[in-house]
TrEMBL record:
SUPFAM superfamilies: P-loop containing nucleoside triphosphate hydrolases (SSF52540). The keyword Nucleotide-binding applies. Pfam families: DUF87 (PF01935). GO terms for molecular function: ATP binding. The keyword Ubl conjugation does not apply. Residues 24-289 form the AAA+ ATPase domain. Keywords: ATP-binding, Nucleotide-binding. It comes from Sphingomicrobium sediminis. It comes from the Bacteria. This is ATP-binding protein.
């Protein structure tokens, strides 16, 4: 039985539903500036689907604790240790409880640590607990940032890895990611790209409007209408919503945040007494009490054990003789072999660079390399080339093609190199199915939009002759595929 969740009304007053079962399979991305109505939209979705499916909310500001009215249990992260948060996540999966994890009161680093531990435990639940659940993450750019910011790198990696697992691999485990962000430009592309449903609200920055328009399949000149959306109005697209972009005004909700935004109230009429209210008796007024200085937090036993283990490991490394770095001639065959094996095992279903890099690091250690010879950015380029059938280091013979591809997003490098390889060899153009597979999608329409996007950047020119055969030329490189 299909379950429709009423989200509001469309341009002609018709109801706009979300297919809940389809949403569980295809995930959702919500974007809009502060004040555009993102929280209102999420609250509408949660209220309308309460009782139909388990709901888990990652709440950075403590806005959704009022959903207790619908049977949700609020978890205050400040009252629990990281280990306890992980144990609670395991019980949530086991007993199918709807909860709100409130991260209010934690610093950014603490919020990322807590969310990473919580989400990873949800993901790692045993197979018998893989029940369907909506996992809502508000302010997702905090937990899957494009850059590290002020938090330690290990914290950023853990949080980004947990968010990537949720959006990339959570579906098989019953986890349907619903992420909301103020800035698409600040949200990691690997996380945003896994959503197939979109609700785009008002935004004013050109870079965010351009990314929103790309996700909605709109031309750049149409992106201006995103700036004109009203508060609470969103452009929806996706298999769970509509096949064509549709404006929807989100309906009313029954609950609200604990502390609503201050409303305008009339100013008091001070009149001629304003100076007296300010200056009379100022010298006799007691000095304000300074805020108390926080007590230094004592180290928890777990943190002490981690520091002790790190100290012992550092001492061992110091006592061990240094291992000479291998020659580049020895490293390259190991890298090429590892990449070839990984591409073969993907079987046309490419993983995100962050997840694949962990696998790559393990394979390098098994082959005798203590540290991965490539950083994450370099690995992303190498795995993209390997997926396109370029086993060797692309910086050698494919330098011009790699330089031309710098104008493209990272996830488009592999499809571009697949076309470039066919053009360089004079082979027929890759099929739309092949381009879709290497792009990580089953949608041929997305593959066509990808080709159109690359052609708009003047990197390729697609021609169809009188016989209906198509060839693709790379004008900057002078390569052309065979007509097919």
């Amino acid at each position: 039985m299909r379950i429709a969740v009423d989200m509001g009304v469309g341009p002609t007053g018709q109801s706009v539903p979300i297919d809940l079962e389809e949403l569980l399979a295809t995930r959702l991305l919500v974007q809009g500036n502060s004040g555009s109505g993102k929280s209102h939209l999420l609250r509408r979705l949660l209220e309308q689907s309460a009782g139909q499916v388990q709901q888990v909310i990652i709440d950075p500001e403590g806005e959704y604790v009022t959903l207790e009215k619908y049977g949700h249990t609020a978890i205050e992260a400040t009252r629990h240790s990281e280990t306890e948060i992980a144990k609670l996540a395991a019980r949530i999966r086991e007993h199918r409880l709807s909860v709100v994890l409130s991260l209010e009161g934690l610093e950014a680093e603490g919020q990322m640590r807590c969310a990473a531990s919580f989400l990873q435990t949800l993901f790692d639940a045993p197979r018998e607990h893989w029940y369907p659940a909506l996992v809502v993450v508000d302010e997702a750019q905090m937990f899957a940032p494009t850059q590290g910011g002020d938090v330690p790198e290990d914290v950023r990696r853990a949080s980004l890895g947990a968010m990537t697992n949720l959006m990339c691999r959570g579906r098989k485990r019953g986890l349907a990611g619903i992420i909301a962000t103020q800035r698409l430009a600040k949200l990691a592309k690997n996380v945003a790209a896994e959503a197939s449903n979109f609700l785009m609200g008002r935004t004013f920055l050109d870079i965010d409007m351009a990314r929103a328009a790309d996700l909605l399949g709109m031309e750049r000149r149409q992106a201006e209408q995103i700036r004109d959306l009203e508060r609470g109005q969103f452009l929806g697209l996706g298999p769970a919503i509509t096949r064509r972009p549709l404006k929807v005004m989100i309906g009313a909700v029954e609950t609200g945040p604990p502390d609503a935004a201050p409303a305008l109230t009339p100013l008091p009429e001070a009149g001629e007494n304003a100076e007296a209210l300010l200056f009379d008796g100022l010298a006799d007024m007691p000095e304000p009490t300074p805020p108390p200085k926080p007590e230094p937090a004592s180290l928890a036993s777990e943190t002490m054990m981690e520091k002790l283990a790190a100290s012992v490991a550092a001492k061992r490394e110091a006592d061990e003789p240094p291992v000479p770095a291998p020659d580049a001639a020895e490293v390259e065959p190991i890298v090429a072999s590892a990449l070839a094996e990984m591409v073969a095992e993907e079987d046309g279903r490419p993983r995100s660079s962050a997840i694949a890099y962990q696998d790559f690091a393990v394979r390098c250690r098994m082959a005798g390399l203590r540290e991965p010879p490539l950083d994450l950015d370099a690995f992303g380029r190498r795995i993209a080339a390997a997926r396109a059938g370029i086993a060797e280091d692309p910086t050698n013979d494919w330098g011009d093609a790699m330089e031309a591809a710098e104008a493209l997003p990272d996830d488009m490098l592999a499809p571009f190199l697949l076309i470039a390889k066919a053009a360089r060899e004079g082979a027929p153009s890759p099929s739309e199915e092949a381009i879709a597979a290497i792009y990580g999608t089953a949608s041929l329409s997305r593959a066509r939009r990808l080709i159109d996007y690359i052609e708009e950047r003047e990197l390729i020119v697609k021609r169809t002759d009188m016989a209906g055969k198509t060839s693709i030329t790379l004008p900057g490189l002078g390569w052309t595929t065979a007509a097919a």
